[in-house]
Specification:
By secondary structure, the protein is mainly beta. The protein contains no helices and 11 strands.
C-alpha cells in the first residue's frame, strides 16, 4: 500500500522559514522522481519544484527561485522543501507528488499529470 504523507505546514508571518516534509512508503524511493505543487482555492494547481531520482537535478518556479530548496533523503524515504523568506503569496495547500521513472525524472516534470502518487497536502499560511 502506497502512502504519501506531507507535514510541516503552518501559520507563519512573512519573512520566516518553514520546512515541509513528505514521507513515502510502499514504493521504491530510489526510483521516484518527485515534485512539490501548491494550490489555492479556485486556482489551478501550480508547480513549485521538482527533483530527479538522484537528487542531482532540481528545478524551481521563478516565483520561488532563490527562496525555496528541494531535497531528498533516499535513506529516510523523505522529500523536503525548505522555504525561506516566506511571502503572503506563498499561502497555499502544498502537495507532494511522486512517480517511478526509469530515466532521471519524468518526461514533463512540471506537469502534474506526470505524477501518479499524491499526498493529502499540508497547509501553509503566511500573514503579511
Amino acid at each position: 500500500q502506497v502512502q504519501v504523507v506531507e507535514s510541516g505546514g503552518g501559520l507563519v508571518q512573512a519573512g520566516v522559514s518553514l520546512r515541509l516534509s513528505c514521507a513515502i512508503s510502499g514504493l521504491r524511493f530510489d526510483d521516484l522522481a518527485m515534485a512539490w505543487f501548491r494550490q489555492t482555492p479556485g486556482e489551478e494547481r501550480e508547480w513549485v519544484s521538482c527533483i530527479g531520482r538522484s537528487g542531482a537535478r532540481t528545478l524551481y518556479a521563478d516565483s520561488v527561485k532563490g527562496r525555496f530548496t528541494i531535497s531528498r533523503d533516499n535513506a529516510e524515504n523523505t522529500l523536503y522543501l525548505q522555504m525561506n523568506n516566506l511571502k503572503a503569496e506563498d499561502t497555499a495547500m502544498y502537495y507532494c507528488a511522486a512517480d517511478p521513472c526509469s530515466m532521471g525524472w519524468v518526461p514533463s516534470p512540471l506537469d502534474f499529470k506526470e505524477y501518479r502518487y499524491w499526498g493529502q497536502g499540508t497547509q501553509v499560511t503566511v500573514s503579511s
